[in-house]
Amino acid sequence: MSKIRFEAKLSKIGSWIIIKLPKNVSNKLPSRGVVMINGSINDFEFQAPLEPDGKGSHWLKVEKNMMQRIKGDAITIEAEVMKVWPEPKVPADLKKALASTKTAQATWMDITPNARWDWIRWIGSTKNLETRKKRIGVALSKMDAGNRRPCCFNRNSCTDVSVSNNGVLIDSIEK
């Protein structure tokens, strides 16, 4: 896939600053689910996931280091889809649970970074702490049995509970 280039405006959901991809740009991506990119915003280079919005498009969280480089409201983004995904940051509770079982840990180490992102996104797609604990237990059980991905997981839903409701990105306000 060649580079995509588009103009966008910043939006805000709670304390988060995001960029919503225009639908026609999102349609050029290889998946309705998470897509990893190498990109630049106004010549500031970054690597990040384009998260699904649960409505068939994508969005990008603007990190603090990105915000420091953005001048004005109109921004230009250039991005290229990554073929090899970076390793995800493993949450402490999942890391501890994986350390408790050699079989699940072996499966975890054998799966692709893309699959690890799926497990982390599925586990984290709930606001309920008890549900999260249950999902970690289910994940360990599934990985102990050799399962490489969570079953029944909608990869096209918005799984960051800070900015979504029922798998759909909350409406944002243009900044």
Give a short summary of the structure:
The chain has helices spanning 23-26, 64-67, 92-99, 102-110, 113-124, 129-144, and strands at 4-13, 16-20, 35-41, 44-52, 58-61, 74-81, 164-165, 168-169, 173-174.
> What general form does the structure show?
globular
Low-confidence stretches: none
Helix content: 25-40%
Helix-strand pattern: EEHEEEHEHHHHEEE
CATH homologous superfamily classification of the largest domain: AF2212/PG0164-like
The description of the largest β-sheet is: 6 strands, antiparallel, barrel
CATH architecture group name of the largest domain: Beta Barrel
The secondary structure category is: alpha+beta
The side-by-side strand order for the widest beta sheet comes to 1-2-5-4-3-6
For the record, give the distance between the C-alpha atoms at the N and C termini, rounded to a whole number: 31 Å
Overall pLDDT confidence: 93
The number of strands is 9
Q: What is the fold-level CATH name, i.e. the topology of the largest domain?
A: Elongation Factor Tu (Ef-tu), domain 3
List the helices and strands and how they pair.
Layout: E1 4-13, E2 16-20, H1 23-26, E3 35-41, E4 44-52, E5 58-61, H2 64-67, E6 74-81, H3 92-99, H4 102-110, H5 113-124, H6 129-144, E7 164-165, E8 168-169, E9 173-174
Antiparallel strand pairs: 1-2, 1-6, 1-9, 2-5, 3-4, 3-6, 4-5, 7-8
Helix pairs in contact: 4-6, 5-6
Give structural notes.
This protein has helices at 23-26, 64-67, 92-99, 102-110, 113-124, 129-144, and strands spanning 4-13, 16-20, 35-41, 44-52, 58-61, 74-81, 164-165, 168-169, 173-174. With 175 residues, the protein is of the alpha+beta class. The chain folds into 2 domains: 4-84 and 163-174, Beta Barrel (Elongation Factor Tu (Ef-tu), domain 3), CATH 2.40.30.100; 92-144, no CATH class. A 6-stranded antiparallel β-barrel has the order 1-2-5-4-3-6. Helix 4 packs across helix 6 and helix 5 packs antiparallel against helix 6.
